[in-house]
Amino acid sequence: MLSPAAARDRAVSLIEQARKQGADAADAVYVGERSQGVSVRLGALEDVHRSEGEEIGLRVFVGKRSATIASSDLSPDALAALVERSLAMAGEAPEDQYAGLAPEELLFRGNPIDLDLDDGGDPDPAELKQRALAAEDAARSIDGVTNSNGSSASASASIFAIATSAGFSGATRATGYSNSASVVAGEAGAMQRDYAWHSARHCDDLEAPNEIGTRAGERAVARLAPVSIKAGPMPVLFDPRVATTLLGHFVAAISAAAIARQSSFLLDALETQLFAPGVTIHDDPFRQRGLRSRAFDGEGLPVKPMDLVSDGVLTTWLAESASARQLGIEPTGHAVRGVSGAPGAGPSNLYFQSGKRSREEMIADIKHGILVTELIGQGVNGVTGDYSRGAAGFLISNGEIGPAVGEITIASNLKQMFAILEPANDLRFRRGVDSPTLLVPQMTVASG
């Protein structure tokens, strides 16, 4: 794996070769990663892996024709062949009037902000094994846990570099650590399983293994002896670990590509009251040690913190350059990409801001409802917003959380859900996409 400076130089060199051989414009992306991990089950080692790889992708433009090719062979001969093939493919590609690099006048200039994404660590397998064992031991120590699906611990380091013929080049390095446990509670036909995990950029920020394991065990035991419920309309609380899926549906619907294709249920929602007043959805690329933090986007454009929804009003689409041209707007600095294909659009560290009421206050006001802790299957129509998913969780009765419920279906329409949902005040930053508990005051809930 190259250093950030060497990765950036390699991308710049590849672009120069492409320009010399006839490309009107080009960009190149380098991705290198080193990862290692350990898995255990029932106190015994199951798997140890370590890998290191690198790839570089070249996108060339000949007029309005373009092609992208990637290679894991970075030798001079292989890169020369990569340039030759990409130009040949571009010559045969159909014209795309919206294709092209990000506008030169909008490119990021200056020195990237230090986001503290790299702690320089490279733990040995013995350390990872002890972390995995400790998480599993804690989970198995919970009364009622009867088996284990295993526990794992991993560490990684990655380099991302991009260069464009319009004059931008940049590179970043980041580390990552994770720890997880999954266990089974109960016996025979009454078994239930659950899990817990945590990821962080710095090893020092990773939760203690015993905390992760204890949470996994307690979650599995709490799901024992599920009860049936009476179907009908009722309030639904989305636990934070599943509430983030609503943000995923939201992001897909405000992608400029979806808007340009007219395949989004939010097609006419820009600058309208999409959520209730007071609801804010914020995107923060500059969070220190954030899992999705970045100093520039996948096209070399500057990024900035911004409210995608402010006081309930949808403020923007998420647009990379090609979709922005289709819509007649400027790109928003949300381009994301790998080494293959054209850039797409996506957020950085995205979250619902906390609301005013606590989760406990919300529960206290519910006479009959559901707390959802797991979602199963798909069942979301991105064109109409119709929403129907299998779920599991807990019954809420007379203001208290009761027994577990399973094999239920929750249904509504995302636009209707967005209009009435309420965030609780229990937001914690644990992922790249975060949410507090979300209350949707009415959904249709059915058994089986």
From TrEMBL:
Pfam families in the cross-refs: PmbA_TldD_1st (PF01523), PmbA_TldD_2nd (PF19290), PmbA_TldD_3rd (PF19289)
InterPro entries the record matches: Metalloprtase-TldD/E_C, Metalloprtase-TldD/E_cen_dom, Metalloprtase-TldD/E_N, PmbA, TldD/PmbA_N, TldD/PmbA_sf
Regions annotated as coiled coil: none
All copies of domain Metalloprotease TldD/E central, residue ranges: 120-224
Stretches assigned to the Metalloprotease TldD/E N-terminal domain: 26-90
Domain Metalloprotease TldD/E C-terminal: 232-446
Superkingdom of the organism of origin: Bacteria
Family that this chain belongs to: Belongs to the peptidase U62 family.
Entry protein name: TldD/PmbA family protein
Origin species: Sphingomonas brevis
